[in-house]
Amino acid sequence: MTQPRPNEFIAPPECPVFEPSWEEFADPFAYINKIRPIAEKTGICKVRPPKEWQPPFACDVDRLHFTPRIQRLNELEAQTRVKLNFLDQIAKFWELQGCTLKIPHVERKILDLYQLNKLVNDEGGFEAVCRERRWSKIALKMGFAPGKAIGSHLRSHYERILYPYNLFQTGANLLVRGMSPSLHAALLMSLLHCLPHFLLYFSVRTVLSWCGAALSQVDQYMCLVCGSGSEEDRLLLCDGCDDSYHTFCLIPPLHDVPKGDWRCPKCLAQECGKPQVAFGFEQASREYSLRGFGDMADSFKSDYFNMPVHMVPTELVEKEFWRLVSTIEEDVTVEYGADIASKEFGSGFPIRGGRFQVSPEDEDYLSCGWNLNNMPVMDSSVLTHVTADICGMKLPWLYVGMCFSSFCWHIEDHWSYSINYLHWGEPKTWYGAPGSAAEKLECVMRKLAPELFESQPDLLHQLVTIMNPNTLMNHGVPIYRTNQCAGEFVITFPRAYHSGFNQGFNFAEAVNFCTMDWMPMGRMCVDHYRQLNRYCVFSHDEMVCKMASTADTMDVALASAVQQDLNAMVQEEDELRAKVNKMGVQQSQQVEYDLLPDEERQCSKCRTTCYLSALTCPCSPGQLVCLHHAQDLCCCPPSNLTLNYRFTMAELYPMKEAVTLRAESYTDWVSRVTNILEDRNKKSLEELRSLVEKAEVKRFPQGDLLLRLRAVTLDAEKCAVVAQQLLNGKRQTRYRRTLTRTCNNLLTVEELRTFVRQLQNLPCSIRQAPLLQDLLTRVDDFQQRSERLLLDEAPSPADLQCLLDASLGLDVELPQLSVLRERLEQARWLEGVQGASDRPHSLCLDTMRRLIDQGVGLAPHASVERAMARLQELLTVSEHWEERALSLMEARPHHCVETLEAALQEVESIPAYLPNCLLLKDTVDQAKDWLQEADALQLTSRIPVLDTLTDLVSRAKIIPVWLDPLARLEALISDVQAWKESAAKTFLMKNSPYSLLEVLCPLCDAGTGSHKSKFKRTKDVAQCGWRNGARLDCLGDVERALSESKDSSSAMATLAEVRHKELESLMTIRAYNESRLLPTGDAGAFRVSGAMLQCELCRDCFHRGCLTHQDPLPNQAWLCPQCRRSEKPPLDRVLPLLASLQRIRVRLPEGDALRFLIERTVRWQHRVQQASSEGVLGETSHQRWGASSPSWSLGPQTNVFCVSKMTFKRKHDFSPPVKDSVNSKRTKRHVEESSERKEKAKKPRKKKPKMNKERSQEVKGMSSPTSTHTDLFPSDSDEDFTLCAAPWCREPEGKQVNWVQCDGNCQQWFHQICVGVSAAQAEKEDYICISCTQPDHNRE
Question: Which N-terminal residues, if any, form the signal peptide (predicted)?
Answer without folding.
Answer: none
